[in-house]
Design a protein that fits this description.
By secondary structure, this protein is mostly beta strands. It has no helices and five strands. A five-stranded antiparallel β-sheet has the order 4-3-2-1-5, with no helix packed on it.
């Protein structure tokens, strides 16, 4: 199972038919290896500790792109 990092999104599939998946943000990674668990803030604002089981969790990685500053456009001309 892939491990998540702080800031990554998690998607937990429902175990019941007709219920939607839950989505949240990893706030803290607790444990490690086969005992990894996460402190997660869910979309409804609640926080909980998540102990993922096999096949129940999808991690959506957050990538940070470094971009160079772009010059301002349309603000007038330099004289």
């Amino acid at each position: 199972m892939a491990e998540g990092n702080v800031g990554d999104r998690v998607l937990v599939e429902s175990e019941r038919v007709g219920r939607s998946a839950r989505e949240g943000e990893i706030l803290e990674v607790l444990g490690g290896g086969s005992n990894v668990h996460y402190r997660v803030r869910w979309q409804d604002g609640h926080e909980s500790t998540l102990f993922p089981s096999a096949g129940s969790l999808t991690i959506i990685r957050v990538t940070s792109k470094v971009t160079s500053p772009q010059p301002a456009r349309g603000r007038g001309r330099l004289k």
